[in-house]
Amino acid sequence: METPTAPLLFDSSFLTKLEQLYLLSKKLFRGAHRAERRSRQVGSSLEFADYRNYTLGDDLRSIDWNIYGRLDRLFIKLFEQEQDLDISFLLDATASMRWQPEKSDRLSKFDQGRRITASLAYIGLANLDRVNVHYFGSRLEEDLGLCRGKSQFHKVLDFLREAPALEGETRLLASVRTFAQRMKRRGLVFLLSDLFDPHGVEEALALLRYQQFEVHVIHILDPAELRPMATGDLRLIESESGEAYEVTASEALLRRYHAEVDAFLEKTSTFCVEHGIGYAQATTAVPFEELVLRVLRDGRMIQ
Amino acid sequence: MTFLNVWAAGFAAVAPVIILLYLLKLKRRPMPVSTLLFWQRILQESRRRAFFQRLRQLFSLLLHLLIFALILGALAHPTLDRQISEGASTVLIVDTRARMQATEPDGQTRFAKARAEAMNVVRQASALRQMAMITVDASARVVTPFTDDEKALRENLAKQSATDAGGDLHSAVELAEELLASRGGARKIIVFTDQVPETKSVDQKVPLDFVTVGTARENLAITRFATRPVLNSPQTSEVLLEVANFGSSSAKTNVELAYDGQLLDVKPLAIEPGAHAVQVFPTVPRPSNNARGWLTARLDMNDALTADNVAYAVLPVDPPKRILLVTKGNWFLEKLFAADQSIAFELITPDSFTPALAAKFDAVVFDNFVPANFDIATAPGNSFFIKQTPFNTSEPTIDQPLISDLDSRHPALRLVNLQNITLLRAAAVTVPKTEGWDWQAPVRSFDHPLMITGERHGGSSRVAALALDIGDSDLPLRVAFPLLISNTLHWLVGEEAALVLSRRAGETLPLAVGESVQTAPQSPWKKDAPAAAKAPTAQTLFQPLANGFYAWQTHDGPRWLAVNTFSEAESDLRIANATPAASIALPTVSLARFAGWPLWQYLAAAALLLFALEWWLFHRRRTE
Hints:
The structure holds two protein chains of two kinds.
Chain A: H1 12-19, E1 34-53, H2 65-71, E2 75-83, E3 86-92, H3 95-98, H4 109-126, E4 130-136, E5 140-143, E6 147-148, H5 153-161, H6 172-182, E7 188-193, H7 202-210, E8 214-221, H8 223-226, E9 232-238, E10 244-249, H9 251-274, E11 278-283, H10 288-298
Parallel strand pairs in A: 3-4, 3-7, 7-8, 8-11
Antiparallel strand pairs in A: 1-2, 4-5, 4-6, 9-10
Helix pairs in contact in A: 4-5, 6-7
Chain B: E1 2-3, H1 15-23, E2 29-33, H2 37-48, H3 50-76, E3 78-79, H4 81-86, E4 88-95, H5 110-122, E5 129-136, E6 140-147, H6 150-159, H7 170-181, E7 187-193, E8 208-212, E9 219-230, E10 233-246, E11 251-259, E12 262-271, E13 276-285, E14 294-299, E15 310-314, E16 321-326, H8 331-339, E17 343-348, H9 355-358, E18 363-367, E19 383-386, E20 398-399, E21 405-406, E22 425-426, E23 437-445, E24 448-456, E25 462-466, H10 480-492, E26 502-504, E27 509-510, E28 516-518, E29 537-538, E30 541-542, E31 548-554, E32 557-564, H11 568-571, H12 599-619
Parallel strand pairs in B: 4-5, 4-7, 7-8, 16-17, 16-18, 18-19, 19-25, 26-32
Antiparallel strand pairs in B: 1-3, 5-6, 9-10, 10-13, 11-12, 11-14, 14-15, 20-22, 21-23, 23-24, 24-25, 27-30, 28-29, 28-31, 31-32
Helix pairs in contact in B: 1-3, 3-12, 5-6
């Protein structure tokens, strides 16, 4: 069931907590600007990188005079170059993400995803990384554009507030293909979705890995779709396709449903682990702040 | 196998409704979900088993139809023929005779007590202990044939009431034995009455028990109440009343005689215990034409049995006979006819007479005149010839004849005294020998007939001839003259076949074709007598069971029929020996013989079991 979009509000104490966090990346990516994140390039940071022989034209301030005193040879002291990182958020905006069970006061999965996106984006902006947000459904929609610096956070929030309600079924593979073509630089990708793609999500995740992105999957689910309780003669109507399905739900059938859902979660998480993809399950039952500060930390997505 | 409730088969019409309900599409509750991904996966296997799914639905339908059939079967109350023939059979005989109306000191009637006792026994009726019910008054009737339907037995018993009829119990016992003759198993007859008959059947084949109610009571009863016309005064009647004292002490009371509801006479009576008192009311006037003729006698006392304190009788109301007097002038005859209220006469001269005119009258008196071409063989109606008769011979008249022979048994000569009558002359007549007629000469002067009477075979026509000139005698001055003329006229119109207008309650009155009797009695004290057009009537046989007056439509016009109990056996309430029903043991049936319960209970239990199974399967979605 769709509900009006919940406002994106963050109090100052929460934002202070977020400023102390850092989005983890196992890989080192080449950045475009100097920033606070280590890169493969050497530069002028405080972190020592290596030595090399002095050549004419080198800055005399870089000569290690201690080495010269002991070895009587001129060596230049090299430092690591700290650059920024491209962080992309792929947020599922299909109808299944907006679905809510009857008489539920929990956030919808989409609202939960938007809040997580805003929080992670703030962390990235606070660390001078370049942040972009993409919506996807049956295809990849227009994105926010690269933003850098905390001053751009309001732009991120506005983009998240004006999220489109996308029609059609989830097509993750097509969306990822477009995303890979669109992105010039590789970086960190956060995929926030319920992963209810009838064609599967494994191929799309593998493609992102193949395109040298470091991928984190935040699997957003509602407890009501993990453990439905309704029994009797039901006419199930899918939120994305509008397709109806008649079923007589009994206790036995629900038990089989639960097993099927558990198998799906197990298969997805196993795939992510095997392919070096960060995976965290974020149900709407878990309060948002706890999710960001504890669950994602435990999932080694932030530090 | 016998189905005791065949009407239950009508519920089979509901079966198509069950099938129709199965054909209706199930209305499912709509429920939006985020994805059908998992539902489709788990139901793919179910869809592959669609054949079994349909089979499951069919199984559910068959299960429901089976439950329905079992319920129908239980409602139809099937009973094995062996069970019916070998179960215990009891015939209840309920005494509804007049004596059962007797009131006991507690205010209840004996019948009410007997019915209460019978009701207790009826409640034990079951499939294995079937009962039939017979009532007995003047005759025995099967009220309820053998059944295990306790409710039907109770309802029929509640409808019964004591009648005014007398009778004996033997006919009911014989009828009960006939009913039981074809029944196997244990049998018994139980009689609910107030008095065990003194003579029991010696060859009693079936155990017979009596449940008696009531205590010894004293009673005063009218045992006879009859009227008859006074012979020498047809306009008055004598009334005979007999009252019996069935008590241990002498009784004094007044008896009231009423005529059409109007008090006529009151006489005191004192009767010794066990004695009968006869009272005669000698001069009760016969009713006028517009009267009903209801005569009632009532004892002015309130004793145990009130039904025999009132008696009913009918004084017949006869319409006057239409007589045509053909004469040139006869002062004696004219005065006599005018004085007789039972006669309505018209007078014409011989010149005005035509044979067609005679057909309109009950009798024609020809005074000194014989119509031309009169042929006795073809003449219709009744004729009375005086002086000139068709039987006159050519012989000379007889001077001063003496009456030598007088047949006093002849209706025309009843109470007629012709001694010392002086006759100047008489015509010479001869008795005809017409074929098909019976001729008599009740008055003769030696060999010469003075009066000739004849009746056609079958009684359709009568002729009388008096060969005297009454003016030439002193007969008109004698008492015998009006008697002779009146008797002759009444004989001619056939009055001696008077109807009996009184019956005892319970006696059967056969009705001729076209006759009918209203079955509801009336009395001078009943104001709600039904209108004649709406009252139920009996057409062939009529057996009145209540005292009173009954409207009786005869061929000769409307009559009243008086019905009374008049039975000393019914009125004598001095003997009573109450035996409560608790001492009566009903025939027992070995349940082991029929494996416990009646068949319908097995069917009902099976239906309940299947219903529980269906419920269990439904809640586990085994059936849909």
